[in-house]
Design brief:
The chain has 189 residues and is an alpha+beta fold. It has three helices and 13 strands, in the order E-E-H-E-E-E-H-E-E-E-H-E-E-E-E-E.
């Protein structure tokens, strides 16, 4: 298995903070190349995934769809903001928020050394989930522990008793209610 591929320009990782840049759907590579051409250091972690079209086999897709990482000094963010395809720099209020240096360093090192990278959804203790595959398919349970590994520990009620089950993460579906945000439409009056 090959290492995950990514786009990163050589540069001093500690020279400037890294920021998360939200981009238009499916524009990660184009924006990364455009920013690189403008002299901005960019990081686009990719993962190998089986294509939905059988003929293509394994394809490389962004690890964080819709986002890239860019390294720049905050006061020099204009070339990033005006780049075609950039939606915004993630901010706290109106101020661009830098990625924690330790987290960014870990992500960079991991992308250079890991055989493969894939995101695992995280679950919180007490979260209600449904098992979608395997012998317990369609059974609902409560997350007891998510230790960051491939399997979760769930509490499943069977015959009015709670049992602990270890389930593959891919077999779990979140049952938490989604929040529907409906924009307010003024009447103009």
């Amino acid at each position: 298995m090959q290492r995950p591929m990514h786009h990163i320009e050589s540069g001093n990782e500690s020279a400037a903070p890294w920021y998360v840049v939200r981009v238009r759907a499916n524009a990660e590579r184009v924006v990364a190349q455009s920013l690189t051409n403008r002299g901005v250091v960019v990081f686009l972690p990719l993962q190998k995934r089986q294509s939905k079209r059988r003929k293509l086999g394994l394809i490389e897709v962004p690890l964080f769809p819709g986002y890239i990482f860019a390294q720049f000094v905050k006061r020099e963010s204009l070339p990033v903001v005006v780049c075609s395809g950039v939606v915004q720099i993630l901010c706290h209020g109106n101020v661009p928020e830098a990625v924690d240096p330790a987290e960014m360093h870990s992500l960079l090192v991991l992308s250079r050394t890991a055989l493969s990278i894939s995101l695992l959804p995280t679950y919180t203790r007490g979260q209600k989930v449904r098992i979608t595959h395997g012998p317990l398919a369609d059974v609902e349970g409560i997350v007891l522990r998510d230790n960051g590994r491939q399997r979760l520990i769930l509490s499943v009620s069977i015959l009015r008793r709670s049992v602990e089950a270890e389930i593959d993460r891919e077999w779990i579906e979140d049952l938490s209610p989604s929040v529907l945000v409906i924009p307010w439409m003024g009447t103009g009056a």
